[in-house]
Each structure stands twice: as C-alpha cells, then as structure tokens.
Amino acid sequence: MQKSLTQGAVGKTLILFSLPMIAGNLLQQLYNIADTLIVGKFLGSGALAAVGSSYTLMTFLTSVFLGLCMGSGAVFSIRFGEGEKEKLQESITAAFLLIFTVTAVLNILVFLFIDPILVLLQVPGEIYQMMREYLWVIFWGIPAVFLYNFYASLLRAVGNSVVPLVFLAACAVLNIVLDLWFVLGLSWGVEGAAAATVLSQYVSGVGIALYTWIKWKDFRFRKKYLRPGKGILKELAQFSFLTSVQQSVMNLGILMVQGLVNSFGTVIMAAFAAAVKIDSFAYMPVQDFGNAFSTFVAQNFGAKKEERIREGIRKAVLTAFVFCLVISFGVFLFAKPLMLIFVQPQETEILAAGVQYLHIEGVFYCGIGFLFLLYGYYRAVKLPGMSVVLTVISLGTRVALAYLLSSFESIGVLGIWWSVPIGWALADIAGFWYYRKMRKKSPCR
C-alpha cells in the first residue's frame, strides 16, 4: 500500500503515519533492551557494562549506512510527491548499490580493527574479552541491519509505515525468545545475547527485502539503471552522504562520551548503559515522529504544497512539545523504578548514578524533541547540510563540556550529564533562528 501525505487533514495524517513508525522503533528498542535486561539480571554488572558499551559502538557504526538510508528516503519521498515514477526507480537502484558498497566496506573494517577500537574506547581490562566476544558476533548482523533499514526507508518514503512495523515486530519477539534460550537455557553468556540479536536481524532484513521485491514490481532494480547518471548520483550524494555525516557525527560524539564514561570505571559504565537505554526508549517516539514529519514535508515539498508544509510545522512542534513534557515528568518521577528493571536492588552505587543521570536528562526532553523535527525538516527541503551543522553544535558542545567539566574533581561525572541538555538547547536556538531567516526568502522554507 502506498499513501500520499499531500492530501487529507494535516494533523491526522501526520499522527496516523507516524504511529506505526513509533511502534516499530519501540519494538526495536525492546530487543536492544532484552540484551541489557537479561544480561544485567543474570550475567552481572560486568556483562551489563560490556553489552551497554557495545550498544553505543554499534549505534555509531550503523549510523553510517542508516544516515545513507534516511537521506535516500528523502529523495524517494520527493520523487513520489512529484509523481516521477521513472526517476524514483532510478533512485532506488542507485541508492541500493551505493549503500550496499559502503556497508560491505564498513563490515570488513570493523572485523579487522576490533582490537584498536576497544583500546580507543578505554575498555577496562576486566571486561575487555567479554566485550570483544560480544562484538565479534554482533558485527555479523550489520548486513541485515542495512537490508531492513533500506527497504523500511523506501516503504515509508511512499507512505507505507505499517509493513516495516510488522517485520520489526517479528524480529523483536524472536530476539526475546532467543535471548532467553541462548543465555539462560544454553548458558552461552554474552555471545548468546549477541547471536539472538543477529539471527533476529536477519529475519527482519531478509524478510522485508523479499516482501518488497515480490509485492512491488516498481521497486525492483532495473538493468538500465545499474549505471546511474551523474545527476541522480549527485542528488543522492547530497542527501545521503550529508545525512550520513550528520548521523555519524552525532554518534561519534556519543561514542567519545562513552570513552569518557568508561574512564570512570565499571560502576558508572553500568549505570550509563542502563540509563541510556531508558533515555533512548523515552524519547524514541518523538524521534520517529520527526522522521515521519520529514517524509510529510518531503512529499509536500515535491508536490509544491507550501501552505500544507507550514501547517504541518505548526502542528508537529505542538505535538512534540506536549509529548516531551509528559515523558519528562514520567522519567523524572519514576527514575529509580526504571533503573531497577536493569539493575539489582543491592547494586546501590549503580542505581544512584543512573537515577542522577535520568533526573538531569529527563527534564529536558523537549530539547531533543525539537531537534529531531529540525533534522527532519532540513533534510526534507534539500538542506541536509544544516542538519550537519546542528549536529555539530549539539554534539560538539556536549563533548567539549563533558571533558571540560568532568575534569574538575568537584563536578566529576555530573559534568557529563549536564553537557547533554546544554548541547540540545544551543542547537535548537540555531535551528529555529535559521528557519526564520530562510522563511523570509522562500515560502516553502
């Protein structure tokens, strides 16, 4: 099913399109959390620290081709909005070849440089081998993550956010079942948790690729497009590589912060691993809403429906604001019970550090909510470079302040926690200022 987002009530269209995306990413977080929950409860804090740090690393690595998929998705949405069927087919073929090549090279490199990566992350000696074993298995799932995200981006670009949800739901359920079997039943330790994730990823990745190939002939590769023209390559490069840079910069900053967190020892590593899972789960819906908003804007940008874009912006900002306020209140109020999902009650130091993190981050979710809308908007109106700028402001501030403030003994790890909302706020200010400036020059912007 394809659906045009250029018609119908704006608010209703946005929300109905975004709901399957939100549900899908919540399910994706579930199978990420399954590793953390089972490992933390049954294998101990050392295993929790190893898996948590691995999650941050994998988020950075996969952000390279995830950004390429998101950027290509913006091109697909614009072409769909324009009604350019031939150009859409050419874009699909060229984008797949491009992103597949990048993914293959990345996959080879991470296997070759696994040990230098762990050294760079300042992984403590007591969990080094455990983390290496987990990563060696989890790296085999990178091609599956590429397949799922490419076809999910394609289907969402043409207004179908339901099918990606179905395959992700199957993946999430399978991952939880396999986690319990491999870790508890077969006693495979962290390698079992990794194997469960990888097998589940292949089910969703290969499944959605086959489904799209069989169901939609228009989305199959065309022999005549295997050597795409310079124009389409330039357009894909503009969107995809800049979006990839934006995603990579964002996660590189997080990875650098992870290295700093690791230097504070296993207790802070474990607290950070659990708290970041809660953090990500809390604001994930507004991130997906931002991606849905981006598709909405891109389709209407292609269809040149300027007033509809303006109305969409107003309603998206209001929706994100209300949602983030509710989530902030919930996370702040229930910080300790949320941490207890991942950590044993007797591990009081880990609990205290995690609750402290959530009490600081949880108050400021509106900052990240608005930032996701800005990322999506600039990507949709052919200004992906501005998303990179906002990411550099947000993460640059976060990394610089984290290292600076935490170096003071009187501040310590609190400096890392406070650097995050400050970075969000500065990027939001810059993004809204530039939007007001651009709106005066172009009605569509």
Which key terms come to mind for this protein?
445 residues, mainly alpha
Total number of strands? 0
Percent helix among the residues? over 70%
User: Which segments are poorly predicted (pLDDT under 50) over 5 or more consecutive residues?
Assistant: none
What form results from the Cα inertia axes? globular
Roughly how many Å apart are the termini?
Answer: 29 Å
Tally of structural domains: 1
Beta-strand portion reads under 5%
In terms of structural class, how would the helical and strand content be classed?
mainly alpha
Rg over alpha carbons? 21 Å
Describe the oligomeric state of these chains in a short phrase: single chain
Largest sheet: none
Spell the H/E element sequence.
HHHHHHHHHHHHHHHH
Overall pLDDT level = 83
Please work out how many helical segments DSSP would assign.
16
Function: Multidrug efflux pump.
Pfam families: MatE
Protein name: Probable multidrug resistance protein NorM
Subcellular location: Cell membrane
How would you describe the overall organization of this protein?
Keywords: Antiport, Cell membrane, Ion transport, Membrane, Transmembrane, Transmembrane helix, Transport. It is a multi-pass membrane protein. Pfam families: MatE (PF01554). One of its GO terms (molecular function) is antiporter activity. Belongs to the multi antimicrobial extrusion (MATE) (TC 2.A.66.1) family. This protein is mainly alpha-helical. The protein has one domain. It contains 16 helices and no strands. Helix 10 packs parallel to helix 13. The longest helix has 38 residues. The radius of gyration is 21 Å and the shape is globular. The relative contact order is 0.13. The model has no long low-confidence stretch (mean pLDDT 83).
